[in-house]
């Protein structure tokens, strides 16, 4: 029989419950997206892998559903658990140790990109990850950068996973999320990185949007170098004015960056906010837009090239129309990242396939709470993504897809979407799931059905 007092006696971290005399419960269940919060029975702020084992064992004995929280940057509620137990890595397992000689980073499972960027660049190093620095490293790292991990599986065993130890588990965690266990530490490959880069926002008013779209497409068709990258966002700026915001990046000096994007600057933007900045500030450029505490619905899709003529102007117009009600804000982000290095990794090397194409992400923010208030963001996002793919149910990049119509409170997507996202790797993943988590103790997000 589960005994919470027994767990408390040996648990090194913090256990927070509703009505806890020490307080802090409301803060403990908060997430980046307000609509992702759930009233958990217990939040276990773990200090190490042993704490994870103990929390998992207690939840199983008490028949409590389990969620795993890194940074809590997932609007679906996948890192929350109504009436369950949340294994929260963010309070204590959030640091990074750098071995500059071997170019390795040892990163806690609850670390955010701000920590990783700052710690690595102190040694002139970096790794590849997300574009908002308060997102969790574990949910947005390039899988080929992971060289090893410490994983606690459903039976409480602590595993080292790498190419030689538990290789199937190592393969599975690099693309199939938390289906097999809790990663308390990642070992990442780091790369040399200059201390400053050219980056920032170039903002255009509606009268120039079609020329901006054509200019960006010409730049992309020419084949940008691995030093370049861009996000072209359709949204509304100050004063609710519709605009296209081009967030540009060049891994070099301001002089080099302005030369690379000269065609955009020659269009005469309404505002030029680009400059040479410290590398560690790069992933903070969208922080104000993606501030915590909002209600958020997100959906994404892969976008095959070439994009049909007229589609992007039509999407800009539709974003303008759908974002007219001031209680909603929409950001439609078209990603233009060179993917040559990522696609050079063999498809079979990780659970997530590497035949990648560019992504688009639609984020819709709502001021009001409740399911009715979120219906509009959901419908708007599905419509916009449907215009790209012809399919409102398109899966695309998993972290950009929060549709959970089957289990909206549980933070899991329908099994068919898991099969679609993981494609022909799904049968092998079912075998890995059978070995390490056959009872589906960890069952959030793109859950895999174990092999029979």
Beta-strand segment tally: 19
Q: Tell me the Rg in angstroms.
A: 22 Å
How many helices? The count is 13
| Helicity range | 25-40%
Distance between the termini: 29 Å
Based on secondary structure, the structural category is: alpha+beta
Q: What oligomeric state best describes the polypeptide chains here?
A: single chain
Task: Summarize the biggest pleated sheet.
Answer: 8 strands, antiparallel
User: What is the overall silhouette?
Assistant: globular
Low-confidence stretches: 404-410
The fraction of residues in strands falls at 15-25%
Return the average pLDDT rounded to an integer.
Answer: 91
If you had to describe this structure to a student in words, what would you say it looks like?
This protein has 452 residues and is α+β, with helices and mostly antiparallel strands. 27% of the residues lie in helices and 24% in strands. It is built from 13 helices and 19 strands. It has helices at residues 4-10, 25-28, 49-61, 113-121, 167-173, 209-222, 254-260, 262-265, 311-322, 340-343, 371-389, 415-422, 426-437, and strands at 14-16, 42-45, 66-69, 85-88, 96-99, 104-108, 125-126, 146-153, 158-161, 181-189, 191-192, 196-204, 228-236, 242-250, 271-272, 275-278, 295-302, 328-336, 359-366. The strands form four sheets. Strands 12, 13, 14, 15, 16, 17, 18 and 19 form an eight-stranded antiparallel β-sheet that branches. The protein has a five-stranded antiparallel β-sheet with strand order 5-6-10-8-9, sandwiched between helices. It has a four-stranded mixed β-sheet with strand order 1-2-4-3, with helices on one face. Strand 8 (146-153) and strand 9 (158-161) form a beta hairpin. Helix 9 (311-322) packs antiparallel against helix 11 (371-389). The chain is globular, with a radius of gyration of 22 Å. The chain starts with a helix and ends in a 15-residue tail after the last helix. Mean pLDDT is 91; it is low at 404-410.
């Amino acid at each position: 029989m589960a005994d919470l007092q027994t767990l408390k006696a040996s648990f090194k971290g913090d256990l927070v419950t509703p009505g806890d005399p020490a307080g802090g419960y409301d803060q403990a269940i908060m997430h980046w997206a307000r609509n992702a919060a759930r009233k958990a029975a217990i939040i276990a702020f773990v200090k190490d892998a042993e704490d994870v084992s103990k929390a998992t064992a207690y939840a199983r004995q008490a028949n409590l559903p389990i969620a795993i929280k890194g940074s809590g940057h997932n609007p679906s509620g996948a890192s929350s658990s109504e009436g369950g137990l949340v294994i929260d890595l963010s309070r204590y397992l959030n640091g990074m140790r750098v071995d500059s000689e071997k170019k390795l980073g040892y990163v806690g499972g609850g670390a955010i990109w701000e920590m990783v960027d700052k710690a690595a660049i102190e040694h002139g190093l970096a790794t590849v990850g997300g574009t908002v620095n308060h997102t969790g490293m574990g949910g947005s790292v390039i899988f080929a950068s992971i060289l090893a991990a410490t994983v606690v599986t459903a039976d409480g065993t602590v595993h080292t996973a790498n190419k030689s130890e538990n290789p199937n588990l190592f393969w599975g965690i690099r693309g199939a999320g938390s289906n097999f266990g809790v990663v308390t530490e990642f070992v990442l490959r780091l790369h040399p990185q200059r201390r400053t880069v050219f980056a920032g926002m170039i903002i255009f008013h509606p009268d120039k949007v079609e020329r901006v779209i054509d200019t960006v497409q010409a730049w992309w068709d020419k084949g940008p170098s691995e030093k370049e990258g861009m996000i072209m966002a359709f949204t509304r700026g100050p004063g609710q004015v519709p605009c296209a915001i081009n967030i540009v990046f060049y891994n070099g000096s301001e002089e080099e960056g302005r030369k690379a994007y000269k065609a955009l600057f020659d269009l005469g933007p309404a505002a030029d906010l680009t400059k040479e900045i410290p590398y560690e500030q790069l992933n903070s450029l969208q922080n104000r837009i993606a501030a915590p505490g909002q209600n958020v619905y997100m959906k994404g899709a892969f976008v095959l090239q070439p994009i049909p003529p007229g589609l992007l102007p039509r999407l800009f117009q539709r974003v303008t129309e759908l974002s007219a009600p001031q209680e909603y804000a929409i950001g439609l982000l078209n990603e233009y990242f060179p993917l040559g290095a990522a696609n050079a990794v063999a498809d079979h090397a990780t659970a997530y396939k590497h035949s990648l194409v560019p992504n688009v992400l639609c984020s819709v923010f709502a001021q009001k709470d409740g399911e009715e208030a979120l219906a509009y963001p959901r419908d708007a996002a599905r419509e916009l993504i449907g215009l790209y793919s012809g399919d409102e149910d398109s899966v695309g990049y998993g972290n950009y897809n929060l549709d959970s119509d089957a289990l909206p409170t549980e933070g899991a997507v329908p099994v068919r979407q898991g099969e679609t996202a993981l494609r022909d790797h799904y049968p092998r993943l079912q075998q890995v799931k059978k070995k390490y988590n056959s009872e589906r103790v960890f069952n959030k997000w793109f859950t895999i059905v174990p092999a029979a």
